Amino acid sequence: MPEVLACIDGSTTAPAVCDYAVWASQRLQTSLTLLHVLDKTQYPQRSDLSGIIGLGTREHLLEELASVDQQHSKRALEQSQQMLEAAQQRAIQAGIESPLTRQRHGSLVESLVALEESIRLLVIGRHSTTNDNIAEHVGSQLEPVIRTLQCPALVTCGDFLAPQNYLFAYDGSFTARKALQRVADSPLLQGLHCHLLMVGSDRAACQALLEEAAEVIRPSASEVSIAWREADVEPSIRTYQLQQKIDLLVMGAYGHSRIRQFLLGSTTSQLIASSLCPLLILR
């Protein structure tokens, strides 16, 4: 059965990732799995060191290096298990009866690809490291995941806040209408206030498309608001988020439009990094 999969790490975003995953699991009425990936670049597995050391090196040095390697891997496994156990207890306290935990070695993308068939919704946190700014971190971690996986992804930021409304960035294309229908059919966002925003140069055409979209989403929403903007996509979305106090931004892989060019272009990570609320990205 497809599940909600939450990527847990040792960052400050882990509690929010867990909480949003719990919220999604309860809304979708599906199981929750908490995943921690032991990245081989950070937690190398035990390796054969004999080729690194010269033939004349004493045997005890080889044994010492192997022991250090083994201890490092053991500590990484223990830390990973502690992270997962803490997240599991948090999910149980929030009402999830039997959340599962999983550990995997390898890269994040490779691990998620291997599990993709069982994922209904991926929940992953946006965060920076001490050495990288947010855009760099997002570019190296989230963007490959979003581009590679075909399942929906909920990218969290900040503390958990149960969404009461959401903003759907719309462009009127066939794939946009299909994505909107998916939102309408899913229990994830049912009963929330839906804001439909379109960015384009022809106000009348955009208004007509927005009215059509409103009819699609209205049966599943508590309220529907439509808006048109002519400015660039990122500032338009950001300003609207601030003005309307948006809790969740919903975007999809659309047709050939300014929104698609923005979403899939070189500034993808900028939108994820600058968003004032979590993003639900549909593929």
UniProtKB/TrEMBL annotation:
<dbReference type="InterPro" id="IPR006016">
    <property type="entry name" value="UspA"/>
</dbReference>
<keyword id="KW-0175">Coiled coil</keyword>
<feature type="coiled-coil region">
    <location>
        <begin position="70"/>
        <end position="97"/>
    </location>
</feature>
<dbReference type="InterPro" id="IPR006015">
    <property type="entry name" value="Universal_stress_UspA"/>
</dbReference>
<dbReference type="Pfam" id="PF00582">
    <property type="entry name" value="Usp"/>
</dbReference>
<comment type="similarity">
    <text>Belongs to the universal stress protein A family.</text>
</comment>
<protein>
    <submittedName>
        <fullName>Nucleotide-binding universal stress protein, UspA family</fullName>
    </submittedName>
</protein>
<feature type="domain" description="UspA">
    <location>
        <begin position="209"/>
        <end position="283"/>
    </location>
</feature>
<feature type="domain" description="UspA">
    <location>
        <begin position="4"/>
        <end position="155"/>
    </location>
</feature>
